[in-house]
Amino acid sequence: MRVLLVEDDALLGAAIQAGLEQSDYTVDWLRDGAQAASALRTAEPDLLILDIGLPGRSGLEVLAELRARGSNLPVLLLTARDTVSDRIAGLDRGADDYLVKPFDLGELTARLRAIARRRGGRAEAVIRHGDLVLDPASRAVTRAGESVSLSAKATMILEALLERPGIPVSRERLELTLYGWNEGVDSNTIEVHVHHLRKKLGKDLIRTVRGLGYMIPKQ
Ligand code: CA
């Protein structure tokens, strides 16, 4: 899952980025609200973590612009203590959740998983497709109760497809899931991971939709 992090505090931002990358999120990090607003006009992350107190433009302004454009990008706000009015304003402007600083990284990732779950219309913590189960927290994949060993990146692709059953996901979109702005991308890397997934999970699970990308059919 690809996260855009907007946080001007260098130490906190670095800690969040490192922590999320450990949990297999791909993280792009900006420190300025105006830059974030401009990046969000073209970039399409899966989740936005947005500090409220930012140079350039405030997180609340960035959020308001995003929602005014009709974007339903999931947003988690980071707020300082003693700013109840900011938290209320943030939720009323369309934030999905907020965390008050200082917070525990474990709580941040748990809240991101909860947001993704609600957006996917799931009540259950795991993603299920027939006898295939992916646990977004532990990154474990099982089939009929048997553990399936997959690389971190193959698991990220499987998660991206399972989150959108019946909808083709383009190769470019999958590349965005795996790689941040500053990382190089091998041209055939998605094909290699999909090949690996098909070998492990059966060739029929992931369909190739010509010209559109890959898809796991709806059940
Ligand atoms: Ca700040």
Number of domains: 2
Question: Which residues sit in consecutive blocks of at least 5 with pLDDT less than 50?
Answer: none
Shape: globular
Biggest sheet character: 5 strands, parallel
Give the structural class.
Answer: alpha/beta
CATH topology of the largest domain: Rossmann fold
Task: Find the count of extended strands (DSSP E, 2+ residues).
Answer: 11
* Topology order in helix (H) and strand (E) letters: EHEHEHEHEHEEEEHHHEE
CATH class of the largest domain: Alpha Beta
- Tell me which ligands are bound: calcium ion
Distance between the termini: 22 Å
Q: Strand order within the widest sheet?
A: 2-1-3-4-5
Fraction of residues in β-strands: 15-25%
pLDDT average, as an integer? Answer: 94
Spell out the CATH superfamily of the largest domain: Response regulator
Give the number of helices.
Answer: 8
> What proportion of the residues is helical, as a percent range?
25-40%
Radius of gyration, in Å, reads 18 Å
Named CATH architecture of the largest domain: 3-Layer(aba) Sandwich
Task: Give the SSE map.
Layout: E1 2-6, H1 10-22, E2 26-30, H2 33-40, E3 47-51, H3 59-68, E4 75-79, H4 84-92, E5 97-100, H5 105-119, E6 127-129, E7 132-134, E8 141-143, E9 146-148, H6 152-162, H7 171-178, H8 189-201, E10 207-209, E11 213-215
Parallel strand pairs: 1-2, 1-3, 3-4, 4-5
Antiparallel strand pairs: 6-7, 7-8, 8-9, 10-11
Helix pairs in contact: 2-3, 6-8
